[in-house]
Specification:
Layout (H helix, E strand, L loop, with lengths): L4 H10 L3 H9 L4 H9 L3 H10 L2 H10 L2 H8 L4 H10 L2 H10 L2 H12 L23 E11 L5 E12 L4 E5 L6 H9 L6 E6 L2 E2 L7 E4 L11 H11 L4 H14 L15 H14 L4 E5 L7 H16 L7 E6 L2 H7 L2 E5 L6 E6 L11 H15 L4
Parallel strand pairs: 3-8, 3-9, 6-7, 7-8
Antiparallel strand pairs: 1-2, 1-4, 4-5, 9-10
Helix pairs in contact: 1-2, 3-5, 5-7, 11-12, 11-13, 12-13, 15-16
Length: about 400
């Protein structure tokens, strides 16, 4: 059986056989199909291909790609070529592309196309060279959740949903309040059974596995009668870790989150930010393969939340924690674009995935950059315009 086009394209680009890859895309009748295939490969390979497209073919795909992705890929070409591609686009499609851009981004693009401002390339996030697709750690297959109503009927909270959590990424799950984000998180961690479908942990049913996950909650969830150190040791005690090992891992983790010297304090003596640091330390002490976070910054003031986000990224990007993936539930759009490599947006009544895409921007990200604002704008439209 011949390999599907997506696998063929991945194989060709991983071997840097650019001309054959371009020929594969050009043979597709519909530019929308070519655009979908292009978005399935790693972003740095998308850029490498897009730089090699003819102006005419690049214009066809630019019109078929999501506007935020078109903008980013256009900036992989020199200014003169970028201008030629935009000029070559179908006038109606070009106008639609311009209309979808946020005002600041549109103005910057107009200045670049007119020569008033030099075009700046977009720096992609670093990637492992030619790495094969990673096997998912968690794979949810058609999971759904319904609750019984007093009248004997059922209300479906989560529609049948497929979702995979792969290693090496931070995933943000975005959706409006009451959409079922936390319920989906609880299903993925095994805290709540799905009404239908199944969740796999490394290919085996979650219920038959011993998933190495930890959760940071919004409400801190500390034991008020235990010290900071004792709170961090609780999950290690539950796992049967010896006292000496518990103490050593707890002290090390507290130091990593900036709580050295507070080991004997009680939760009532801590600020909100410090309590959440204890929550981080407790979750990280078990060295989870996936760290789940349920709106971990929403109960904090703006400055404290910003500091904790920065500290989390320092631990993640500096490989100071053994965690292989982070899954964050949030309703904060900027927070998702700031932290995540991949964003999943869900709707509600019932919850179903409306968008699932990667953010190719390099960390640390500038929340005032045109590229950052593009993604914020797109997600805002998704969450406020159900017809999209």
């Amino acid at each position: 059986m011949p390999a599907p086009p997506s696998e063929k394209l991945r194989a060709l680009t991983s071997q840097e056989r650019w001309e054959q890859a371009i020929d594969l895309l050009r043979r597709l009748d519909d530019p929308a199909d070519a655009a979908r295939l292009l978005m399935d490969i790693p972003f740095e390979e998308q850029q490498a291909l897009f730089r090699r497209f003819s102006v005419n073919f690049a214009a066809q795909l630019a019109a078929a790609l999501p506007y935020y992705h078109t903008y980013v890929l256009l900036h992989s070409r020199p200014a003169a070529e970028m201008n030629a591609i935009v000029e070559q686009m179908n006038p109606a499609e070009r106008l639609q592309f311009f209309d979808e851009l946020p005002e600041e981004t549109w103005q910057r693009l107009m200045d670049e196309l007119s020569g008033q401002q030099p075009a700046e390339g977009v720096t992609a996030a670093p990637a492992v060279e030619h790495a094969p697709p990673a096997e998912a750690i968690i794979h949810a297959l058609r999971v759904e959740k319904s609750f019984a109503r007093p009248d004997g009927g059922e209300v479906q909270v989560i529609a049948p949903t497929d979702l995979a959590i792969e290693p090496g990424v931070i995933i943000a799950l975005l959706g409006p309040s009451g959409s079922g984000k936390s319920t989906l998180l609880r299903i993925l961690t095994g805290l709540t059974p799905p009404s239908g479908g199944q969740v796999l942990w490394h290919g085996a049913p979650l219920g038959e596995s011993n998933p190495n996950v930890a959760i940071v909650f919004q409400s801190f969830a500390l034991f008020p009668w235990l010290t900071v150190l004792d709170n961090v040791e609780v999950p290690l005690l539950a796992r049967g870790v010896t006292q000496d090992q518990r103490r050593g891992r707890a002290l090390k983790t507290l130091a990593s989150v900036g709580l050295e010297g507070f080991e004997t304090a009680f939760p009532k003596d801590l600020s909100g930010g410090m309590k959440q640091r204890v929550g981080f330390a407790r979750a990280l002490a078990v060295e989870p393969e996936i760290l789940f976070m349920d709106e971990p910054f929403s109960a904090l003031d703006v400055l404290t939340a910003e500091n904790l986000r920065s500290e989390l990224m320092e631990l993640w990007l500096g490989h100071k924690i053994p965690t292989r993936s982070i899954f964050i539930v949030t309703h904060n759009i900027e927070e998702a674009v700031l932290l995540a490599d991949r964003i999943i947006v869900i709707g509600r009544n019932p919850a179903r995935i409306r968008a699932d895409f990667h953010i190719p921007l390099k960390q640390y990200r500038d929340r005032h950059s045109a590229e950052f604002l593009l993604y914020v704008d797109y997600i805002y439209k998704l969450m406020t315009q159900p017809e999209l």
